[in-house]
Amino acid sequence: MIGIFDSGLGGLTVVREVMARLPGYDLIYFGDTARTPYGPKSPETVIQYAVQIAKWLLDNGAQVIVVACNTASSVATEALRQRFGVPIFEVVSPAVRLVIQNSHIRSVGIIGTRATINSGIYEKMIKAERPEVKIYSRECPLLVPLVEEGWLKKPETKRIVKKYLYPLKLKQIDTLILGCTHYPILKDIIQIKIGKRVRIIDSSQTIAESIKYFLKDHPETEGMLSRNSDHRLYVSDITGHFKQIAQDILRIPVKLEHVRL
Ligand code: DGL
């Protein structure tokens, strides 16, 4: 099984893209709805949660771990790799690779939670390979709660997106990385506000692509993964509202199961 986790339900954007590219593969998802959001938390706390969840996924049948959460990917990937001897996929490097491989990209904007932006991970990884690329980062802490409230088309949301993106627009970036699980849900508004000439890198899509290519190149791992279209979704807290958000993201009827870690 492919084990996927996030701080909450935003990681279902990654599940959606994985299901589209790897149909039939069994997957187990854990959304830490009881402890969300991770964005304002310290790296130590996020690492502790990520290790606990990865262990739970492995104990429950996962053979690979996908860190759908940008915040956890930014601060906890190394700790997970040190502790667990299974393939660990995270959302940062596939987006970074796209920038590194594309010499037309010269000026990149990155938006994410406070923890992701403070980690500086995107800048470090891009600069290590392409020091000439200009990078402008911006934390956008209000976007996650707006998405979770379902305020996707409200004028207030459009105004806040515009305000967050304005400094990046002034810098005339050519590429914008959506460094948070929730931002693909606002992609249309983000594209309008940043301008249609700016290319958007959606990390939920880039990670799904990279898992697909990894499995093609690693038959020993691919062979371990079962393919019965079994998709299990677990959360650490459950309300009717969570179910609605999950269905809105996955666009199919879902059954969420409650589990206490
Ligand atoms: N999943 C988080 C991320 O992608 C966003 C929500 C949170 O702050 O926990 O960074």
Oligomer: single chain
Topology pattern, helix = H, strand = E = EHEHEHEHEHHEHHEHEHHEHE
Largest sheet: 6 strands, parallel
**What spatial form do the alpha-carbon principal axes imply?**
globular
Quickly count the domains.
Answer: 2
Low-pLDDT regions: none
Rg of Cα set: 17 Å
Task: Write up what this structure looks like.
The protein is of the alpha/beta class and 261 residues long. The mean pLDDT is 96. Helix content is 48%, strand content 18%. It has a 6-stranded parallel beta sheet, with helices on both faces. The chain has 2 domains: 2-90 and 205-258, Rossmann fold (3-Layer(aba) Sandwich); 92-203, Rossmann fold, CATH 3.40.50.1860. It is globular, with a radius of gyration of 17 Å. The protein is built from 12 helices and 10 strands. The structure holds D-glutamic acid. Residues 6-8, 10, 36-39, 69-71, 112-113, 116, 144, 180-182 line the site of D-glutamic acid.
In short:
The chain has 261 residues and is an alpha/beta fold. Helix content is 48%, strand content 18%. It has a six-stranded parallel beta sheet, with helices on both faces. The chain has a four-stranded parallel beta sheet with strand order 6-5-7-8, with helices on both faces.
